[in-house]
Specification:
The protein is about 80% helix and about 0% strand. By secondary structure, the chain is mainly α. It has one domain (about 1-215). α7 (about 140-155) runs antiparallel to α9.
């Protein structure tokens, strides 16, 4: 569990960093960072505007919420908060983050491969979150943890995309288009492979055993 805690601390630090990146966008000015890559025609579209601002905000807070959901001390000591934050996490992804991300995928630069990559990511994000919620409503705690791990793996694609981009550009010296096309898929598919490895290694059982032990 120590490795998991180290990873969660890293995610928390990244979440704080992402907040500093989001704040400038709240001025609603078009000439800011990512928005400068879009044409005036795209920036003028209402669905893109709503999709962008809903996505950056909802994706940010679900990433932060996820840190606490997988923190053993938190979900054992504060079960009510765990359930409340879990509902916010699920609702935010199903109703806000995933649908808005799909809208942005339609306007993604880089061609069909990128649009399909981001679009499929949002579909998998929505589906894994919905299954995780469904499993806990049927009182299947182990399967719930497993599917939540898959969901959070896709949530962390934002972090993986930036880390992978940095390594590819500054370590492997790949071209921008090569980097972009690769990380579009690697950022979330790679995370899912890691999640499957953790599930195979018994991550869910350990989380549940830890909770049961602490409650005795």
């Amino acid at each position: 569990m120590r490795l998991i805690l180290i990873v969660l601390l890293g995610v928390m630090a990244f979440t704080v960093l992402m907040f500093t990146k989001i704040v400038p966008y709240l001025s609603f000015e078009p000439a800011i960072d990512f928005l400068t890559t879009k044409t005036d025609t795209v920036l003028a579209k209402t669905d893109f505007q709503w999709g962008f601002y809903v996505h950056i905000l909802s994706s940010w807070w679900v990433m932060g919420i996820g840190v606490f959901q997988f923190w053993p001390f938190f979900f054992q000591k504060y079960a009510l908060w765990h359930r409340l934050l879990g509902k916010i996490y699920v609702f935010s992804i199903l109703a806000l983050a995933a649908p808005s991300g799909f809208v942005l995928a339609l306007y993604a630069n880089g061609g069909l491969s990128v649009k399909v990559g981001f679009g499929l990511q949002c579909f998998v994000w929505w589906l894994t979150t919905w299954v995780a919620w469904r499993e806990i409503t049927f009182r299947h705690p182990q399967r719930h943890v497993e599917w939540m791990l898959r969901s959070y793996a896709v949530t962390l694609a934002a972090m993986s995309l930036r880390l992978a981009s940095y390594v590819m550009v500054y370590v492997w010296h790949t071209k921008p288009i090569e980097t972009y096309l690769t990380v579009t898929w690697l950022s979330w598919v790679g995370n899912l492979f890691i999640a499957e490895g953790l599930i195979y290694a018994g991550f869910a059982q350990r989380m549940l055993r830890y909770q049961e032990f602490e409650q005795k």
